[in-house]
Amino acid sequence: MRQKINWNKLALSIALDMVGWLSFALPGTGEFFDALWAPLSAYILMKMYPGSVGKIMGTVEFVEELLPATDFIPTFTLTFLYDTFLRGNKEWEKIFPSEKMKNSSSNKR
Question: In this predicted structure, which of 23-27, 30-34, 38-42, 46-50 has the lowest mean pLDDT?
């Protein structure tokens, strides 16, 4: 089954990753910018991708923005790729169970 690609969400993910890269372009203000951007970007990512994936990747985004020299990691885009192409894959579902899978297993009990 072929997954429909949400091009607007991909463009937004790339744009938000680029905002995170701004700290490289603003000499001397990078750490201050990262301290402001880290919680905001984590919140945005959790709203864009609800459920366990958003919570996990929002936490990853928060830590990534606060750690030095990790701003180059495109967390929003990687989350988009996972959500679009890997979610539903049985091996990936063992690591990141979707809300649908959680609900169906709890209904069986």
Answer: 23-27
